[in-house]
Amino acid sequence: MTDEPLLRVSALSKFYGSRVGCDNVSFDLWPGEVLAVVGESGSGKTTLLNCLSTRLLPSSGTASYRMRDGQFRELYRMSEAERRFLMRTDWGFVHQNPADGLRMTVSAGANVGERLMAVGDRNYGKIRATAVDWLSRVEIEQDRIDDEPRAFSGGMRQRLQIARNLVTGPRLVFMDEPTGGLDVSVQARLLDLLRGLVTDLGLAAIVVTHDLAVARLLSQRMMVMKDGRVVESGLTDRVLDDPRAPYTQLLVSSILQV
Amino acid sequence: MPTPLVVSDVAKSFTMHLREGIKLPVVAGVSFSIKAGECTVLGGPSGAGKSSILKMLYGNYAVDDGQIIVTHDGGLIDLANASPRTVLAVRRQTIGYVSQFLRTVPRVSALDVVAEPLVERGEEREAARGKARALLAQLNLPEKLWALPPATFSGGEQQRVNIARGFITGHPILLLDEPTASLDARNRDVVIELIAAKKAAGVALLGIFHDHDVREAVADRIIDVTAFAPGKRAA
Amino acid sequence: MNDIATYNFAYLDEQTKRMIRRAILKGIAIPGYQVPFASREMPMPYGWGTGGVQVTASIIGPDDVLKVIDQGADDTTNAVSIRAFFKKVANVAVTTDTATATIIQTRHRIPEHPLTAGQVLVYQVPIPEPLRFLEPRETETRKMHALEEYGLMHVKLYEDIAKHGRIATTYAYPVKVEGRYVMDPSPTPKFDNPKMHRSPALQLFGAGREKRIYAVPPFTDVVSLDFEDHPFEVQTFDQPCALCAAENVYLDEVILDDHGGHMFVCSDTDHCEKRREEGHRGHLAPEMMEPAQ
After folding, report:
1. What 3-state class would DSSP assign to A85?
2. Which is deepest, A86, B103, C140, C203, by most CB within 10 Å?
3. Whole-complex ipTM
4. Nearest 5°: CA angle at A167, between A116 and A141?
């Protein structure tokens, strides 16, 4: 186990004019760690995720990422080419709406294989074998490999999106409400799958969710955001079982009991 | 052998922000230590803060004041001020915890629920499952249930899965929060055996047992938690 | 003719030609890169080769000899019209002979007769962007070219193999130019792709509607994309040309009657005629069908 974090975030802020997106967020993320960012809509959690994944440039602050060679690189000083390369090799991004993360008009196999081809894989047989393997890992039947995701259910699309992201063996995955918009039973299956993959692959992940149950199941650590600021952070079970900030207490007390 | 866990002057209160910020003191001046090979029992009536103390020792509750020094990875760590990452490392290697209730995960079989802590610590999945089978058998959980997710099990069945999950690892410190609460006499005796085996292996145990017979059977020492009532100190 | 005087030489005004020549020079400097240019309205509709015509008009001089082919043929409407156009507005010599032409404007073919140094091949291009059908956003495709993100191009080939068991793309087959830009060779059959590789001729591409010019300078590497286990292959034909018996040339199917009768003949009409003049005869050549003549 390494003693250095994978990602160091320091005083990250994003303003939209005079409106606050996220304000002065700092944290470290270690390899294999899953961090949940919770808060209601407008709390800045998605802005934070977009800044971290360099889909959005922050107004101030820094984020450095430990590359595979062990060197830390400041994300916002990298060239766009480098960032995009990172995005499709060492990182993943799972969108809430699978259509945003998939190519809906090419087959499932090609969706999974695209990243491999992007990094120079030129053997059709191997690409296809890898795609078959990944489809089975996300519980999609092999005979669906040549179907377009348009013909898939919501849960299947989301699982396909996950496979597409994980095929290059990324070390860090960003997830934006990965179970949002899915039926409860489909959610449970997806969460279980994600949990297994994260453990098996030793992935680090930053999961944005408004669902505290999702946070509890997936993450070890948690940040609670309100109005762009982090109001509480710590071990997930500590934050949920002994919430300290007024807002966290409100959030925890608002969970519906079944 | 160093004392595995020393608690000194620990205080805990809850601030209820949703109720005009009233402060509920739970315990104060908590000081004790536990020893390897011994089972220390927290005693006192419900509401005295026994469970809260266990949860602080596991990093599950935040600590207002004081120190919780644990021997971990060849050094000493103050859990009361440790980073989340350190707490996780302590949980992985040093402190195990058997909670009152099993938090079930959809679709994971009872066998894997039990084997998981070992797998997380780097043990081969099949070897971990072997140990899980042995424990579940010892706890008399019908074999036909092993492959099923425990969500639909009865309270007693879930608790046995929970106990097996807590006892399967070799943590040098083990916290037990009423592990026998919903068990029948036969399985209570199994838990007593398991605790005895842990003691023999040099594990330091700290537990809460409401069941008088179990307490009598396992306790080497009883700490009266009412001594840590916050009012007492103030007075 | 008097009315020629009302036009500038080769129809376009000199400023426009300079603008287009600059785009051409930039294209030559960055092989395979699509240079935007201010495409003009031409006296013919889009789809009739307005891009190629503007390129030809900008490079043609009074001493040039022009050949125009449409899918290999010198005698189809498009070729005849464009040839007539330049004859009228530039008063240049025209030919159907590949070897003597200095400029060859083409729609969808490269002549069979090998091109030589000093010749210019001008392609008419309908859609210059090879990534277009996979990525509809122009902003994104430009970025992909800039960052050399070409994984998507192989996605298309992957889909072909997955659906058809082989790369089924037979025309507009994507190529990589000088190891850098992925380029659409215009809808030429992939049979012609190898001819682009290290060709001694200058190859210019004009897309009038899409307002793009790109170029492959002489002796430039042009490599067709493929997979290790599904390498690039050109089409092969079971039989030689029915008229001139040529082998290893690109053939068109010609329907002969309403009863399924058909023949395969050279798509390059000039090549076919030359061979027949040299005495080559296919099994359906007229003399053999009608020995009395």
Report:
1. helix
2. C203
3. 0.89
4. 110
- Residues paired with C176 in a beta bridge: C182, C223
* A–B touching, 3+ CB–CB pairs within 8 Å: yes
Place of tokens 């199941």: A217
- Taking only the tens of pLDDT, chain B with its 235 residues reads 678 999 999 999 999 998 888 999 999 999 999 999 999 999 999 888 999 999 999 999 999 999 999 999 999 999 999 999 999 999 999 999 998 888 777 778 999 999 999 988 888 999 999 999 999 999 999 999 999 999 889 988 999 999 999 999 999 999 999 998 888 899 999 999 999 999 999 999 999 998 888 999 999 999 999 999 987 654 3
- A117, C162: Cβ pair inside 8 Å? no
DSSP C189: B
Q: The dihedral of CA B122, B127, B132, B134: what is its sign?
A: negative
What are the CB-based long-range contacts (under 8 Å, 24+) for B82-90?
B84/A220, B84/A221, B84/A234, B84/A235, B84/A238, B84/B59, B85/A30, B85/A33, B87/A235, B87/A238, B87/B59, B88/A220, B88/A235, B90/B59
Contact C147 A81 (CB under 8 A): yes
State the best of C142, C156, C159, C224 to mutate against chain A, taking most chain A CBs within 10 Å: C159
